[in-house]
Write a structure and sequence with these properties.
Elements (H helix, E strand, L loop, with lengths): L6 H10 L5 H10 L1 H9 L10 H6 L2 H4 L3 H14 L3 H13 L4 H4 L2 H14 L4 H9 L2 H6 L13 H8 L10 H10 L3 E3 L24 E3 L9 E3 L2 E3 L3 H9 L2 H15 L6 H13 L4 H9 L2 H4 L11 H12 L9 H10 L22 H15 L5 H13 L2 E2 L1 H11 L7 H11 L5 E2 L6 H16 L2 H4 L2
Antiparallel strand pairs: 1-2, 3-4, 5-6
Helix pairs in contact: 6-9, 6-19, 6-20, 7-9, 9-10, 10-14, 12-13, 15-16, 16-17, 19-20, 19-21, 20-21, 21-25, 23-24, 23-25
């Protein structure tokens, strides 16, 4: 089938990013697989997305006062960034360290947290936990601003152990209590504004104040604590030191990375391989992902199309293929809404557990949304990516038989591989038109419309809905 040689590269770009156009795949193929992995793993070597244009034409993206503005801002970045893994890892940490606008009512606060994930998301897990513990949005989200030496609040301490680093069964209730005591005094510098009446905490005229972290030693419990078998006058930094070196933590993070980057079905051998890399690299996420992307666990065709794309992956990946939203457009919020309707309201996860992924992304309602949204985006023939596909078809040959047209369209959609049964159904659909010709004497516009209709049907296939 067309594009088989690009299959592995396409697989890598779906997992380490949001998919890639045929041109991007060919450029990466010319560099080589291992070299492409290194480029992905070092986003700092690629120029940042220049968002000045978007901020100028859509001023609400500058202040990010509104939730819709915050969602639009991240949509623009995911679609246009030349650092796909940086955005993908930010989305990973956002799902794991789920922090929601719904409680914060502070759009800039959640956006600032995603910026933290971009800066530190490929670094050591120890450092990521340290930055997370100092993040004002997390401090507000899990009530550590209410965690005082004379009145401990266990919310952050509990979720740090249960959901963020180790998992249930690897700590005791006493560990939770002592963890919370260690984080007393870690708060928000300007939280006095949050304790007064709403009239003092108004979002008008310029939005909420930009929260900052503050450590208050006078509010810290500096007495002795016992935590995970150790005893000492622990502060939050000490707790993170202990957590980061635990075997349970290596397995926990390895499992999360495998699920996100490889398959919805766990593989104990592969997770053990990643956990060992965690221990060898002292929890360096970049090292773990390098080992993963270069491993047979990742490269094997058995795991291609074994993950259901999250709504954000689907919406962003389709927009990138179509070349949509490369310049400011007022309806970018509609794109974020599409992901919302599919079950993933970015920057506003439903609970501290984040989203339930895998097959739970798809039901009879959300599947219709997924298909309709993708078809609408790829059906806009004025978009540069769609035009590029059509022009490449025209430049290839003057006419195509149904099977040829299907193979070329699968290639144009990122070297998509489909099952034999799916391929047969696509050919049956294309056979309704017979030979599709792009010669001047034929109705070119009619031929272009037929190509777009076929692209829309391909986007409805199981394979396209999977990563």
């Amino acid at each position: 089938m067309a594009g088989k040689g690009l299959g592995l590269m396409a697989h890598l770009m779906r997992r380490a990013g949001f998919g890639a156009t045929l041109q991007e795949l060919e450029e990466s193929q010319a560099k080589g697989y291992e070299a492409t992995v290194e480029v992905l793993l070092h986003p700092e070597d690629v120029p940042e997305w220049d968002d000045d244009l978007f901020r100028r034409y859509q001023p609400d993206l500058n202040s990010v006062m509104y939730f819709e503005s915050a969602q639009a801002y991240w949509m623009y970045k995911m679609i246009n960034s030349k650092r796909p893994l940086e955005e993908k890892i930010a989305l990973f940490w956002h799902g794991l360290f789920a922090t929601a606008y719904g409680k914060l009512n502070h759009a800039k606060g959640v956006v600032n947290q995603t910026d933290t994930f971009r800066r530190h998301g490929l670094g050591s897990f120890h450092n990521i936990l340290m930055e997370l513990s100092r993040d004002p949005a997390m401090i507000f989200w899990l009530d550590n601003k209410d965690n005082h030496k004379d009145a401990p609040n266990e919310n952050y301490g509990r979720e740090l152990l249960e959901l963020f680093s180790m998992g249930i069964g690897n700590y005791t209730e006493d560990d939770v209590k002592n963890c919370a005591r260690a984080f007393t005094g870690w708060t928000i510098a300007n939280d006095e504004y949050m304790s007064v009446r709403a009239s003092r905490d108004s979002i008008w005229p310029s939005g909420r104040i930009d929260w900052q972290f503050e450590y208050r030693p006078e509010d810290h419990d500096d007495t002795e604590k016992k935590f995970l078998g150790r005893t000492g006058n622990f502060n939050g930094e000490d707790i993170i030191d202990i957590i980061a070196m635990r075997p349970a933590t290596s397995w926990f993070i390895a499992g999360k990375l495998y699920n996100y980057f490889v398959s919805d079905t766990p593989n104990e051998e592969a997770i053990a391989f990643l956990a060992e890399e965690y221990r060898k690299s002292s929890g360096d996420i970049r090292s773990m992902l390098r080992a993963l992307f270069l491993s047979d666990y990742f490269k094997s065709e058995d795991v291609w199309y074994s993950r259901v794309k999250s709504p954000a992956e689907l919406v962003v990946g389709t927009a990138r293929l179509a070349g949509s939203y490369q310049s400011p457009r007022w309806d970018i919020t509609n794109l974020a809404s599409d992901a919302n309707f599919m079950g993933q309201e970015i920057l506003n996860p439903p609970t501290v557990e984040g989203w339930h992924t895998g097959t739970e992304w798809v039901d009879t309602g959300t599947l219709v949304e997924r298909v309709n949204s993708s078809a609408l985006v790829i059906g806009d023939t004025v978009q540069p990516g769609v035009q590029a596909m059509i022009q490449r078809l025209k430049g290839g040959q003057n006419s195509y038989q149904p099977a040829e047209l299907v193979d070329e369209c699968l290639l144009l959609l990122g070297s998509l591989s489909v099952s034999n049964s799916t391929h047969d159904r696509l050919v049956e659909f294309a056979a309704n038109w017979g030979e599709v010709s792009f010669t001047p004497e034929d109705a070119a516009s009619c031929s272009e419309q037929q190509v777009v209709e076929l692209l829309q049907v391909i986007l409805a296939t199981r394979e396209y809905q999977m990563a």
